[in-house]
Amino acid sequence: MSGPSRSPYRSAYPLRGVWIVRLAVCVLILIAVATVWTTNTWLTDRFTESTRSRAQVRMALYSGNVVSELQRASVVPLLLSRDPTLIRALENVDFSQSSQLLISYVDEIGAASLQLLDDTGRVVAATDRSTIGTNLRSAPFYVEALRSNDTVFITSRAEAGNFTFTYSRAITVDRKKAGVIVVGVDLAKFEQSWAGISDAVIVTDSEGQIILATEPRWRGRLVNEALDARSAPSAVARAIQATADWGALPPDAYVMGEAVMRNEARIPFRGWRIISFTPYVSIRDKVNAVLALEIMGFAMLLALSFYLLSRRAQMKSLGYQRETVELRELNARLQREIAERERAEKNLEVAEQTLEQSSKLAALGEMSAAISHELNQPLAAMKTYLAGARLLLQRKRPDEALSSFQRIDDLIERMGAITRQLKSYARKGGDAFEPLDMRSCVSGALSMMEPQLKRRKVTITRSLPREPVMVMADRIRLEQVIINLLRNALDATRESPVPQIDLILSSGETATLTVRDNGHGIEDIDRLFEPFYTTKQPGDGVGLGLAISSGIVADLGGRLTARNAREEGAVFEVQLPILNQDKEAAE
Question: Which residues cross the membrane (predicted)?
Fold first, then answer.
Protein backbone atom coordinates (compact mmCIF):
# COMPACT_ATOMS: atom_id res chain seq x y z
CA MET A 1 0.00 0.00 0.00
CA SER A 2 1.63 3.24 -1.10
CA GLY A 3 1.53 6.45 0.93
CA PRO A 4 -0.76 9.39 0.25
CA SER A 5 -0.34 10.60 -3.30
CA ARG A 6 -0.78 14.24 -4.27
CA SER A 7 -3.55 14.63 -6.83
CA PRO A 8 -2.71 16.83 -9.82
CA TYR A 9 -6.21 18.28 -9.71
CA ARG A 10 -5.71 19.56 -6.14
CA SER A 11 -2.52 21.37 -7.08
CA ALA A 12 -4.03 22.76 -10.26
CA TYR A 13 -6.90 24.56 -8.52
CA PRO A 14 -4.78 26.68 -6.15
CA LEU A 15 -2.43 27.53 -9.00
CA ARG A 16 -5.32 28.66 -11.13
CA GLY A 17 -6.69 30.67 -8.20
CA VAL A 18 -3.36 32.45 -7.79
CA TRP A 19 -3.35 33.42 -11.45
CA ILE A 20 -6.95 34.63 -11.19
CA VAL A 21 -6.00 36.81 -8.22
CA ARG A 22 -3.01 38.22 -10.06
CA LEU A 23 -5.15 38.89 -13.10
CA ALA A 24 -7.76 40.66 -10.96
CA VAL A 25 -5.09 42.88 -9.39
CA CYS A 26 -3.67 43.72 -12.83
CA VAL A 27 -7.17 44.53 -14.12
CA LEU A 28 -7.78 46.78 -11.11
CA ILE A 29 -4.50 48.60 -11.71
CA LEU A 30 -5.31 49.03 -15.41
CA ILE A 31 -8.77 50.37 -14.55
CA ALA A 32 -7.21 52.80 -12.08
CA VAL A 33 -4.67 54.01 -14.64
CA ALA A 34 -7.34 54.38 -17.32
CA THR A 35 -9.67 56.22 -14.94
CA VAL A 36 -6.95 58.60 -13.74
CA TRP A 37 -5.82 59.24 -17.31
CA THR A 38 -9.37 59.86 -18.56
CA THR A 39 -10.22 62.09 -15.59
CA ASN A 40 -7.01 64.05 -16.04
CA THR A 41 -7.70 64.63 -19.74
CA TRP A 42 -11.34 65.61 -19.22
CA LEU A 43 -10.73 67.90 -16.25
CA THR A 44 -7.72 69.50 -17.91
CA ASP A 45 -9.78 70.34 -20.98
CA ARG A 46 -12.66 71.62 -18.87
CA PHE A 47 -10.56 73.77 -16.50
CA THR A 48 -8.44 75.03 -19.38
CA GLU A 49 -11.50 76.26 -21.24
CA SER A 50 -12.94 77.93 -18.14
CA THR A 51 -9.59 79.58 -17.37
CA ARG A 52 -9.29 80.74 -20.97
CA SER A 53 -12.79 82.20 -20.84
CA ARG A 54 -12.03 84.14 -17.65
CA ALA A 55 -8.76 85.38 -19.13
CA GLN A 56 -10.57 86.62 -22.24
CA VAL A 57 -13.12 88.43 -20.06
CA ARG A 58 -10.30 90.12 -18.13
CA MET A 59 -8.59 91.16 -21.37
CA ALA A 60 -11.82 92.70 -22.61
CA LEU A 61 -12.04 94.65 -19.34
CA TYR A 62 -8.40 95.76 -19.56
CA SER A 63 -8.83 96.82 -23.18
CA GLY A 64 -11.90 98.84 -22.30
CA ASN A 65 -10.06 100.63 -19.47
CA VAL A 66 -7.15 101.57 -21.75
CA VAL A 67 -9.44 102.83 -24.51
CA SER A 68 -11.56 104.76 -22.00
CA GLU A 69 -8.48 106.45 -20.57
CA LEU A 70 -7.16 107.38 -23.99
CA GLN A 71 -10.53 108.71 -25.19
CA ARG A 72 -10.98 110.83 -22.08
CA ALA A 73 -7.53 112.37 -22.50
CA SER A 74 -7.93 112.91 -26.24
CA VAL A 75 -10.45 115.75 -25.83
CA VAL A 76 -8.37 117.68 -23.28
CA PRO A 77 -5.92 119.29 -25.80
CA LEU A 78 -8.82 120.60 -27.85
CA LEU A 79 -10.44 122.21 -24.77
CA LEU A 80 -7.24 123.73 -23.42
CA SER A 81 -6.20 125.05 -26.83
CA ARG A 82 -9.30 127.27 -26.67
CA ASP A 83 -8.86 128.33 -23.04
CA PRO A 84 -8.80 132.19 -23.02
CA THR A 85 -6.50 132.38 -20.00
CA LEU A 86 -3.81 130.32 -21.70
CA ILE A 87 -4.27 132.29 -24.94
CA ARG A 88 -3.83 135.63 -23.11
CA ALA A 89 -0.76 134.29 -21.33
CA LEU A 90 0.83 133.46 -24.68
CA GLU A 91 -0.14 136.88 -26.08
CA ASN A 92 1.14 138.84 -23.07
CA VAL A 93 4.02 136.44 -22.36
CA ASP A 94 2.86 136.37 -18.76
CA PHE A 95 2.95 132.86 -17.36
CA SER A 96 2.91 133.60 -13.64
CA GLN A 97 -0.52 132.09 -13.11
CA SER A 98 -0.42 129.51 -15.91
CA SER A 99 1.21 126.67 -13.94
CA GLN A 100 -1.24 127.04 -11.10
CA LEU A 101 -4.06 126.98 -13.60
CA LEU A 102 -2.75 123.77 -15.16
CA ILE A 103 -2.38 122.16 -11.74
CA SER A 104 -6.02 122.95 -11.02
CA TYR A 105 -7.03 121.42 -14.34
CA VAL A 106 -5.06 118.20 -13.91
CA ASP A 107 -7.02 117.26 -10.81
CA GLU A 108 -10.30 117.73 -12.62
CA ILE A 109 -9.19 115.98 -15.83
CA GLY A 110 -7.22 113.13 -14.24
CA ALA A 111 -4.35 113.48 -16.72
CA ALA A 112 -0.82 112.47 -15.86
CA SER A 113 0.65 115.89 -16.65
CA LEU A 114 -0.03 119.14 -18.47
CA GLN A 115 2.52 121.32 -20.20
CA LEU A 116 2.35 124.61 -22.09
CA LEU A 117 5.09 125.34 -24.65
CA ASP A 118 5.59 128.68 -26.42
CA ASP A 119 6.40 129.11 -30.09
CA THR A 120 10.12 128.44 -29.40
CA GLY A 121 9.49 125.07 -27.80
CA ARG A 122 10.26 126.22 -24.26
CA VAL A 123 8.11 124.94 -21.38
CA VAL A 124 6.50 128.06 -19.95
CA ALA A 125 3.96 126.35 -17.67
CA ALA A 126 3.59 122.78 -16.34
CA THR A 127 2.07 120.79 -13.55
CA ASP A 128 5.61 119.63 -12.79
CA ARG A 129 7.34 122.94 -12.06
CA SER A 130 10.78 121.32 -12.37
CA THR A 131 10.31 121.06 -16.14
CA ILE A 132 9.61 124.81 -16.60
CA GLY A 133 12.24 126.38 -18.80
CA THR A 134 13.15 123.16 -20.55
CA ASN A 135 13.40 123.50 -24.31
CA LEU A 136 11.50 120.69 -26.09
CA ARG A 137 11.77 122.10 -29.61
CA SER A 138 12.89 118.72 -30.99
CA ALA A 139 10.36 116.63 -29.06
CA PRO A 140 8.11 114.60 -31.40
CA PHE A 141 4.91 115.78 -29.77
CA TYR A 142 5.94 119.44 -30.28
CA VAL A 143 7.07 119.00 -33.88
CA GLU A 144 4.01 116.96 -34.89
CA ALA A 145 1.64 119.39 -33.20
CA LEU A 146 3.01 122.34 -35.16
CA ARG A 147 2.66 120.37 -38.39
CA SER A 148 -0.94 119.33 -37.79
CA ASN A 149 -4.11 121.25 -37.20
CA ASP A 150 -5.59 118.43 -35.08
CA THR A 151 -4.70 116.72 -31.85
CA VAL A 152 -1.64 114.50 -32.18
CA PHE A 153 -0.99 111.30 -30.15
CA ILE A 154 2.68 110.42 -29.58
CA THR A 155 4.25 107.37 -27.90
CA SER A 156 7.86 107.97 -26.86
CA ARG A 157 10.44 106.01 -24.94
CA ALA A 158 11.74 107.63 -21.76
CA GLU A 159 15.26 107.35 -20.39
CA ALA A 160 14.06 105.05 -17.59
CA GLY A 161 12.89 102.53 -20.19
CA ASN A 162 9.20 103.11 -19.81
CA PHE A 163 6.96 104.73 -22.40
CA THR A 164 5.14 108.04 -22.20
CA PHE A 165 1.87 108.70 -23.96
CA THR A 166 0.95 112.28 -24.84
CA TYR A 167 -1.71 114.20 -26.69
CA SER A 168 -0.53 117.56 -28.09
CA ARG A 169 -2.26 120.34 -30.02
CA ALA A 170 -1.12 123.72 -31.31
CA ILE A 171 -2.67 126.94 -29.82
CA THR A 172 -3.47 129.46 -32.54
CA VAL A 173 -3.47 133.23 -31.87
CA ASP A 174 -4.44 135.51 -34.75
CA ARG A 175 -4.08 132.54 -37.12
CA LYS A 176 -0.53 131.96 -35.90
CA LYS A 177 0.65 129.04 -33.83
CA ALA A 178 1.73 130.68 -30.63
CA GLY A 179 2.32 127.57 -28.59
CA VAL A 180 1.51 123.90 -27.92
CA ILE A 181 -0.50 122.32 -25.12
CA VAL A 182 0.75 118.81 -24.14
CA VAL A 183 -1.43 116.34 -22.14
CA GLY A 184 0.26 113.26 -20.65
CA VAL A 185 -1.83 110.08 -20.39
CA ASP A 186 -1.25 107.94 -17.32
CA LEU A 187 -1.29 104.31 -18.61
CA ALA A 188 1.33 103.14 -16.14
CA LYS A 189 -1.34 102.85 -13.48
CA PHE A 190 -2.80 99.95 -15.44
CA GLU A 191 0.52 98.12 -15.33
CA GLN A 192 0.48 98.39 -11.53
CA SER A 193 -3.08 97.09 -11.29
CA TRP A 194 -2.38 94.23 -13.74
CA ALA A 195 0.69 93.20 -11.77
CA GLY A 196 -1.56 92.35 -8.82
CA ILE A 197 -2.97 89.27 -10.56
CA SER A 198 -1.23 86.03 -11.57
CA ASP A 199 -1.48 86.70 -15.30
CA ALA A 200 1.33 88.43 -17.17
CA VAL A 201 -0.15 91.17 -19.39
CA ILE A 202 1.46 93.14 -22.22
CA VAL A 203 0.22 95.75 -24.68
CA THR A 204 1.88 96.10 -28.09
CA ASP A 205 1.65 98.83 -30.69
CA SER A 206 0.92 98.31 -34.35
CA GLU A 207 4.55 97.25 -34.98
CA GLY A 208 4.49 94.56 -32.29
CA GLN A 209 6.66 96.50 -29.84
CA ILE A 210 5.73 96.11 -26.18
CA ILE A 211 4.70 99.49 -24.74
CA LEU A 212 2.98 98.29 -21.56
CA ALA A 213 3.94 95.20 -19.57
CA THR A 214 3.69 93.78 -16.07
CA GLU A 215 7.33 92.75 -16.49
CA PRO A 216 9.38 96.00 -16.75
CA ARG A 217 12.21 94.39 -18.73
CA TRP A 218 9.84 93.44 -21.54
CA ARG A 219 9.12 97.05 -22.52
CA GLY A 220 10.53 98.08 -25.87
CA ARG A 221 10.99 94.48 -27.11
CA LEU A 222 9.07 92.27 -29.44
CA VAL A 223 6.90 89.54 -27.91
CA ASN A 224 9.16 86.63 -28.93
CA GLU A 225 12.25 88.47 -27.69
CA ALA A 226 10.57 89.16 -24.38
CA LEU A 227 9.57 85.53 -23.90
CA ASP A 228 13.08 84.33 -24.72
CA ALA A 229 14.67 86.75 -22.28
CA ARG A 230 15.35 84.61 -19.20
CA SER A 231 18.32 83.56 -17.17
CA ALA A 232 20.05 80.16 -17.29
CA PRO A 233 18.44 78.79 -14.10
CA SER A 234 15.04 79.54 -15.61
CA ALA A 235 15.84 77.18 -18.52
CA VAL A 236 16.42 74.33 -16.07
CA ALA A 237 13.26 75.25 -14.23
CA ARG A 238 11.44 75.28 -17.57
CA ALA A 239 12.53 71.71 -18.33
CA ILE A 240 11.48 70.56 -14.86
CA GLN A 241 8.15 72.33 -15.20
CA ALA A 242 7.55 70.81 -18.65
CA THR A 243 8.16 67.35 -17.16
CA ALA A 244 5.81 68.09 -14.26
CA ASP A 245 2.99 69.15 -16.60
CA TRP A 246 2.61 65.62 -17.97
CA GLY A 247 -1.17 65.76 -18.10
CA ALA A 248 -1.71 69.32 -19.23
CA LEU A 249 -2.45 70.50 -22.72
CA PRO A 250 0.53 71.60 -24.82
CA PRO A 251 1.58 75.03 -23.46
CA ASP A 252 1.25 78.07 -25.69
CA ALA A 253 4.44 79.63 -24.33
CA TYR A 254 6.82 79.72 -21.38
CA VAL A 255 7.18 82.73 -19.09
CA MET A 256 10.14 82.60 -16.71
CA GLY A 257 10.36 78.87 -17.37
CA GLU A 258 6.69 78.30 -16.52
CA ALA A 259 4.16 76.90 -18.99
CA VAL A 260 1.45 79.44 -19.71
CA MET A 261 -1.69 79.84 -21.77
CA ARG A 262 -1.62 82.68 -24.27
CA ASN A 263 -4.70 84.78 -24.98
CA GLU A 264 -4.69 87.72 -27.37
CA ALA A 265 -7.23 90.44 -28.19
CA ARG A 266 -7.34 93.62 -30.24
CA ILE A 267 -7.53 97.09 -28.68
CA PRO A 268 -9.57 99.41 -30.91
CA PHE A 269 -6.88 102.12 -30.93
CA ARG A 270 -4.13 102.55 -33.52
CA GLY A 271 -3.66 98.77 -34.06
CA TRP A 272 -2.74 98.05 -30.46
CA ARG A 273 -3.08 94.50 -29.10
CA ILE A 274 -3.29 93.16 -25.58
CA ILE A 275 -1.83 89.74 -24.69
CA SER A 276 -2.16 87.84 -21.42
CA PHE A 277 -0.18 84.79 -20.23
CA THR A 278 -2.09 82.67 -17.72
CA PRO A 279 -0.03 79.99 -15.91
CA TYR A 280 -1.22 76.41 -15.93
CA VAL A 281 -0.44 76.07 -12.24
CA SER A 282 -3.99 76.90 -11.17
CA ILE A 283 -5.39 74.39 -13.66
CA ARG A 284 -2.91 71.75 -12.58
CA ASP A 285 -3.72 72.30 -8.90
CA LYS A 286 -7.44 71.82 -9.49
CA VAL A 287 -6.91 68.70 -11.58
CA ASN A 288 -4.40 67.25 -9.13
CA ALA A 289 -6.84 67.72 -6.27
CA VAL A 290 -9.42 65.53 -8.03
CA LEU A 291 -6.79 63.01 -9.16
CA ALA A 292 -5.49 62.75 -5.61
CA LEU A 293 -8.98 61.75 -4.43
CA GLU A 294 -9.29 59.16 -7.19
CA ILE A 295 -5.84 57.71 -6.51
CA MET A 296 -6.62 57.60 -2.81
CA GLY A 297 -9.85 55.74 -3.53
CA PHE A 298 -8.16 53.18 -5.76
CA ALA A 299 -5.36 52.76 -3.19
CA MET A 300 -7.92 52.04 -0.49
CA LEU A 301 -9.71 49.59 -2.81
CA LEU A 302 -6.42 47.86 -3.61
CA ALA A 303 -5.50 47.69 0.07
CA LEU A 304 -8.92 46.19 0.81
CA SER A 305 -8.40 43.64 -1.97
CA PHE A 306 -5.02 42.63 -0.54
CA TYR A 307 -6.58 42.33 2.90
CA LEU A 308 -9.35 40.08 1.58
CA LEU A 309 -6.82 38.00 -0.35
CA SER A 310 -4.70 37.55 2.74
CA ARG A 311 -7.76 36.46 4.70
CA ARG A 312 -8.63 34.05 1.92
CA ALA A 313 -5.11 32.64 1.98
CA GLN A 314 -5.38 32.07 5.70
CA MET A 315 -8.71 30.29 5.27
CA LYS A 316 -7.24 28.13 2.53
CA SER A 317 -4.33 27.21 4.76
CA LEU A 318 -6.73 26.08 7.47
CA GLY A 319 -8.74 24.21 4.87
CA TYR A 320 -5.61 22.40 3.62
CA GLN A 321 -4.88 21.28 7.13
CA ARG A 322 -8.39 19.91 7.54
CA GLU A 323 -8.15 18.12 4.20
CA THR A 324 -5.13 16.02 5.20
CA VAL A 325 -7.29 13.24 6.64
CA GLU A 326 -9.65 13.45 3.67
CA LEU A 327 -6.73 13.08 1.28
CA ARG A 328 -5.62 9.90 3.01
CA GLU A 329 -9.10 8.43 2.69
CA LEU A 330 -9.23 9.54 -0.93
CA ASN A 331 -5.89 7.83 -1.59
CA ALA A 332 -7.24 4.58 -0.20
CA ARG A 333 -10.34 4.84 -2.40
CA LEU A 334 -8.15 5.52 -5.42
CA GLN A 335 -6.14 2.39 -4.73
CA ARG A 336 -9.34 0.34 -4.65
CA GLU A 337 -10.53 1.96 -7.88
CA ILE A 338 -7.20 1.15 -9.54
CA ALA A 339 -7.54 -2.52 -8.60
CA GLU A 340 -11.09 -2.60 -9.98
CA ARG A 341 -9.91 -0.92 -13.18
CA GLU A 342 -7.17 -3.53 -13.65
CA ARG A 343 -9.74 -6.29 -13.34
CA ALA A 344 -11.97 -4.51 -15.87
CA GLU A 345 -9.04 -4.21 -18.29
CA LYS A 346 -8.40 -7.95 -18.06
CA ASN A 347 -12.07 -8.64 -18.83
CA LEU A 348 -11.84 -6.23 -21.74
CA GLU A 349 -8.84 -8.09 -23.18
CA VAL A 350 -10.81 -11.35 -23.07
CA ALA A 351 -13.76 -9.66 -24.82
CA GLU A 352 -11.44 -8.24 -27.50
CA GLN A 353 -9.98 -11.69 -28.17
CA THR A 354 -13.48 -13.12 -28.51
CA LEU A 355 -14.47 -10.31 -30.87
CA GLU A 356 -11.34 -10.85 -32.94
CA GLN A 357 -12.15 -14.54 -33.28
CA SER A 358 -15.70 -13.64 -34.36
CA SER A 359 -14.28 -11.22 -36.93
CA LYS A 360 -12.06 -13.95 -38.33
CA LEU A 361 -15.04 -16.28 -38.67
CA ALA A 362 -17.03 -13.55 -40.43
CA ALA A 363 -14.11 -12.92 -42.81
CA LEU A 364 -13.92 -16.66 -43.59
CA GLY A 365 -17.63 -16.69 -44.37
CA GLU A 366 -17.29 -13.65 -46.64
CA MET A 367 -14.29 -15.25 -48.40
CA SER A 368 -16.11 -18.49 -49.04
CA ALA A 369 -19.05 -16.57 -50.53
CA ALA A 370 -16.64 -14.53 -52.68
CA ILE A 371 -14.88 -17.65 -53.95
CA SER A 372 -18.17 -19.22 -54.99
CA HIS A 373 -19.15 -15.95 -56.73
CA GLU A 374 -15.88 -15.41 -58.58
CA LEU A 375 -15.53 -19.02 -59.77
CA ASN A 376 -18.96 -18.99 -61.38
CA GLN A 377 -17.66 -17.02 -64.37
CA PRO A 378 -14.77 -19.36 -65.34
CA LEU A 379 -16.97 -22.43 -64.71
CA ALA A 380 -19.66 -21.02 -66.95
CA ALA A 381 -17.05 -20.29 -69.62
CA MET A 382 -15.60 -23.83 -69.28
CA LYS A 383 -19.08 -25.31 -69.68
CA THR A 384 -19.55 -23.33 -72.88
CA TYR A 385 -16.11 -24.38 -74.25
CA LEU A 386 -16.77 -28.10 -73.39
CA ALA A 387 -20.10 -27.97 -75.23
CA GLY A 388 -18.38 -26.40 -78.21
CA ALA A 389 -15.57 -28.97 -78.14
CA ARG A 390 -18.11 -31.80 -78.07
CA LEU A 391 -19.81 -30.43 -81.14
CA LEU A 392 -16.46 -29.98 -82.91
CA LEU A 393 -15.44 -33.58 -82.17
CA GLN A 394 -18.78 -34.84 -83.39
CA ARG A 395 -18.21 -32.90 -86.61
CA LYS A 396 -14.70 -34.33 -87.00
CA ARG A 397 -12.91 -31.05 -86.34
CA PRO A 398 -10.31 -32.01 -83.71
CA ASP A 399 -7.96 -29.05 -84.34
CA GLU A 400 -10.60 -26.55 -83.40
CA ALA A 401 -11.60 -28.74 -80.43
CA LEU A 402 -7.98 -28.64 -79.19
CA SER A 403 -8.11 -24.82 -79.13
CA SER A 404 -11.22 -25.06 -76.95
CA PHE A 405 -9.38 -27.43 -74.61
CA GLN A 406 -6.49 -24.94 -74.51
CA ARG A 407 -8.88 -22.21 -73.46
CA ILE A 408 -10.30 -24.51 -70.80
CA ASP A 409 -6.74 -25.04 -69.53
CA ASP A 410 -6.26 -21.28 -69.39
CA LEU A 411 -9.48 -20.94 -67.45
CA ILE A 412 -8.35 -23.61 -64.97
CA GLU A 413 -5.10 -21.66 -64.50
CA ARG A 414 -7.11 -18.53 -64.06
CA MET A 415 -9.34 -20.21 -61.45
CA GLY A 416 -6.19 -21.10 -59.54
CA ALA A 417 -5.01 -17.51 -59.78
CA ILE A 418 -8.41 -16.28 -58.59
CA THR A 419 -8.32 -18.54 -55.54
CA ARG A 420 -4.80 -17.30 -54.75
CA GLN A 421 -5.82 -13.68 -55.14
CA LEU A 422 -8.98 -14.08 -53.08
CA LYS A 423 -6.84 -15.16 -50.13
CA SER A 424 -5.34 -11.67 -50.04
CA TYR A 425 -8.69 -9.81 -49.76
CA ALA A 426 -8.46 -9.83 -45.97
CA ARG A 427 -5.00 -8.16 -45.86
CA LYS A 428 -3.19 -5.28 -47.57
CA GLY A 429 -0.79 -6.43 -50.26
CA GLY A 430 1.47 -5.01 -52.92
CA ASP A 431 3.94 -7.71 -53.83
CA ALA A 432 2.11 -8.53 -57.06
CA PHE A 433 1.98 -4.92 -58.29
CA GLU A 434 3.65 -4.22 -61.61
CA PRO A 435 3.49 -1.56 -64.35
CA LEU A 436 0.46 -2.38 -66.52
CA ASP A 437 -1.11 -0.99 -69.64
CA MET A 438 -4.82 -0.69 -68.90
CA ARG A 439 -5.61 -1.30 -72.56
CA SER A 440 -4.34 -4.89 -72.25
CA CYS A 441 -6.37 -5.37 -69.05
CA VAL A 442 -9.52 -4.24 -70.89
CA SER A 443 -8.73 -6.64 -73.74
CA GLY A 444 -8.11 -9.51 -71.32
CA ALA A 445 -11.39 -8.88 -69.52
CA LEU A 446 -13.29 -8.83 -72.82
CA SER A 447 -11.62 -12.11 -73.80
CA MET A 448 -12.69 -13.57 -70.45
CA MET A 449 -16.27 -12.43 -71.04
CA GLU A 450 -16.36 -13.56 -74.68
CA PRO A 451 -18.57 -16.67 -74.10
CA GLN A 452 -21.23 -14.65 -72.21
CA LEU A 453 -21.10 -11.87 -74.81
CA LYS A 454 -21.61 -14.32 -77.70
CA ARG A 455 -24.74 -15.78 -76.15
CA ARG A 456 -26.46 -12.37 -76.26
CA LYS A 457 -26.78 -9.71 -78.87
CA VAL A 458 -25.02 -6.87 -77.07
CA THR A 459 -23.27 -4.02 -78.83
CA ILE A 460 -19.83 -3.48 -77.28
CA THR A 461 -18.04 -0.21 -78.16
CA ARG A 462 -14.46 0.37 -77.12
CA SER A 463 -12.71 3.74 -77.08
CA LEU A 464 -9.05 3.20 -76.24
CA PRO A 465 -6.22 5.75 -76.69
CA ARG A 466 -3.35 4.97 -79.02
CA GLU A 467 -0.70 5.60 -76.37
CA PRO A 468 -0.25 3.21 -73.44
CA VAL A 469 -2.10 4.07 -70.26
CA MET A 470 0.34 2.88 -67.61
CA VAL A 471 -0.70 2.18 -64.02
CA MET A 472 0.84 0.29 -61.12
CA ALA A 473 -1.55 -2.59 -60.32
CA ASP A 474 -2.14 -6.34 -60.07
CA ARG A 475 -3.28 -7.65 -63.45
CA ILE A 476 -5.52 -10.45 -62.14
CA ARG A 477 -7.33 -8.20 -59.64
CA LEU A 478 -7.71 -5.30 -62.08
CA GLU A 479 -9.13 -7.63 -64.77
CA GLN A 480 -11.48 -9.07 -62.16
CA VAL A 481 -12.83 -5.57 -61.46
CA ILE A 482 -13.44 -4.98 -65.17
CA ILE A 483 -15.14 -8.38 -65.51
CA ASN A 484 -17.45 -7.61 -62.56
CA LEU A 485 -18.42 -4.29 -64.13
CA LEU A 486 -19.05 -5.95 -67.52
CA ARG A 487 -21.15 -8.67 -65.94
CA ASN A 488 -23.24 -6.10 -64.04
CA ALA A 489 -23.73 -4.19 -67.30
CA LEU A 490 -24.87 -7.38 -69.06
CA ASP A 491 -27.36 -8.10 -66.28
CA ALA A 492 -28.63 -4.49 -66.34
CA THR A 493 -29.27 -4.59 -70.13
CA ARG A 494 -31.07 -7.90 -70.09
CA GLU A 495 -34.48 -6.28 -70.65
CA SER A 496 -33.27 -3.56 -73.04
CA PRO A 497 -34.51 -3.92 -76.64
CA VAL A 498 -31.15 -2.78 -78.03
CA PRO A 499 -28.55 -3.51 -75.33
CA GLN A 500 -25.32 -1.55 -75.56
CA ILE A 501 -22.20 -1.33 -73.39
CA ASP A 502 -19.57 1.40 -73.87
CA LEU A 503 -15.98 1.02 -72.66
CA ILE A 504 -14.09 4.36 -72.61
CA LEU A 505 -10.47 4.56 -71.43
CA SER A 506 -8.95 8.04 -71.01
CA SER A 507 -5.67 9.34 -69.65
CA GLY A 508 -5.27 12.67 -67.84
CA GLU A 509 -4.37 13.35 -64.27
CA THR A 510 -5.67 9.83 -63.62
CA ALA A 511 -6.34 6.76 -65.72
CA THR A 512 -10.14 6.57 -65.99
CA LEU A 513 -12.08 3.57 -67.29
CA THR A 514 -15.78 4.29 -67.88
CA VAL A 515 -18.28 1.42 -68.25
CA ARG A 516 -21.65 2.73 -69.43
CA ASP A 517 -24.81 0.74 -70.22
CA ASN A 518 -28.37 1.55 -71.31
CA GLY A 519 -30.07 -0.66 -68.75
CA HIS A 520 -32.55 0.09 -65.97
CA GLY A 521 -30.11 2.18 -63.93
CA ILE A 522 -29.32 2.13 -60.17
CA GLU A 523 -32.22 2.18 -57.71
CA ASP A 524 -30.43 2.71 -54.34
CA ILE A 525 -27.05 4.23 -55.15
CA ASP A 526 -26.18 4.81 -51.46
CA ARG A 527 -26.17 1.06 -50.71
CA LEU A 528 -24.63 0.02 -54.01
CA PHE A 529 -21.20 -0.93 -52.63
CA GLU A 530 -22.46 -2.59 -49.43
CA PRO A 531 -21.70 -6.34 -49.16
CA PHE A 532 -24.60 -8.70 -49.95
CA TYR A 533 -26.70 -5.90 -51.47
CA THR A 534 -28.14 -7.05 -54.84
CA THR A 535 -31.17 -6.54 -57.05
CA LYS A 536 -30.69 -9.82 -58.92
CA GLN A 537 -32.88 -12.89 -58.60
CA PRO A 538 -31.80 -15.61 -56.13
CA GLY A 539 -29.14 -17.77 -57.74
CA ASP A 540 -27.87 -15.00 -60.03
CA GLY A 541 -25.57 -13.40 -57.43
CA VAL A 542 -24.95 -12.75 -53.75
CA GLY A 543 -24.17 -9.01 -53.91
CA LEU A 544 -20.40 -9.13 -53.32
CA GLY A 545 -19.10 -8.22 -56.79
CA LEU A 546 -19.17 -4.41 -56.43
CA ALA A 547 -18.10 -4.51 -52.78
CA ILE A 548 -15.05 -6.64 -53.64
CA SER A 549 -14.32 -4.51 -56.72
CA SER A 550 -14.44 -1.31 -54.64
CA GLY A 551 -12.00 -2.82 -52.14
CA ILE A 552 -9.62 -3.90 -54.94
CA VAL A 553 -9.63 -0.42 -56.52
CA ALA A 554 -9.01 1.18 -53.12
CA ASP A 555 -6.04 -1.17 -52.57
CA LEU A 556 -4.67 -0.05 -55.95
CA GLY A 557 -4.76 3.60 -54.77
CA GLY A 558 -7.82 4.62 -56.80
CA ARG A 559 -11.57 4.79 -56.40
CA LEU A 560 -14.67 3.22 -57.94
CA THR A 561 -17.70 5.50 -58.44
CA ALA A 562 -21.18 4.98 -59.90
CA ARG A 563 -23.99 7.24 -61.08
CA ASN A 564 -27.09 7.10 -63.22
CA ALA A 565 -26.81 8.33 -66.79
CA ARG A 566 -28.79 11.40 -67.88
CA GLU A 567 -31.14 9.48 -70.20
CA GLU A 568 -31.03 5.80 -69.19
CA GLY A 569 -28.62 3.27 -67.77
CA ALA A 570 -25.75 3.54 -65.31
CA VAL A 571 -22.15 4.73 -65.48
CA PHE A 572 -19.27 3.18 -63.49
CA GLU A 573 -15.84 4.83 -63.37
CA VAL A 574 -12.55 3.31 -62.24
CA GLN A 575 -9.92 5.97 -61.51
CA LEU A 576 -6.31 4.91 -60.88
CA PRO A 577 -3.14 6.99 -60.49
CA ILE A 578 -1.15 7.45 -63.71
CA LEU A 579 2.30 5.85 -63.67
CA ASN A 580 4.64 8.44 -65.19
CA GLN A 581 8.32 7.93 -65.96
CA ASP A 582 9.59 9.45 -62.71
CA LYS A 583 7.23 7.37 -60.60
CA GLU A 584 8.04 4.25 -62.59
CA ALA A 585 11.76 4.78 -61.98
CA ALA A 586 11.12 5.31 -58.26
CA GLU A 587 9.08 2.10 -58.12
Answer: 20-43, 289-309
Q: Is 39 helix (H, G, I), strand (E, B) or coil?
A: helix
The answer as to whether 547 is a domain residue is yes
pLDDT in the model for residue 403:
82
Residue 302: φ, ψ to 5°: -65, -40
500-511 exposure pattern, b = at least 16 Cβ within 10 A, e = fewer:
bbbbbbeeeebb
The residue length of the chain stands at 587
Nearest 5°: the CA angle 158, 163, 166 is 100
For the chain, the domain total comes to 1
CATH number of the structural domain spanning residue 551:
3.30.565.10
Question: First and final CA of the chain: distance in angstroms?
Answer: 59
Residues of the domain holding 503 = 432-575
**pLDDT given at position 181:** 92
Question: What is the Cα–Cα distance from 575 to 509, expressed in whole angstroms?
Answer: 10
Q: Report residues of the chain scoring pLDDT below 70.
A: 1-18, 21, 198, 229-253, 255-257, 351-374, 417-432, 451, 529-544, 581-587
**244 domain residue, yes or no:** no
HEC sequence for 130-189: HHCCCECCCCHHHHHHHHCCCCEEEEEECCCCCEEEEEEEEEEECCEEEEEEEEEECCHH
Q: Are 499 and 459 within 8 A, CB to CB?
A: yes
Asked if 372 contacts 541 with a C-beta cutoff of 8 angstroms, the reply is: no
- What dihedral angle (degrees, nearest 10) is formed by the CA atoms of 450, 451, 456, 459? 0
Q: CA neighbours within 13 Å on the CB side: how many for 46?
A: 9
How far is it, in rounded angstroms, from Cα 544 to Cα 373? 8
Sequence-distant (6+) residues with CB within 8 A of 279 are 198, 199, 255, 258, 259, 260, 261
Has residue 448 been placed in a domain?
yes
Task: Give residue 107's pLDDT.
Answer: 76
pLDDT score for 359? 41
Give the model's pLDDT for residue 6.
46
Give the integer Cα–Cα distance in Å for 490 and 453: 8
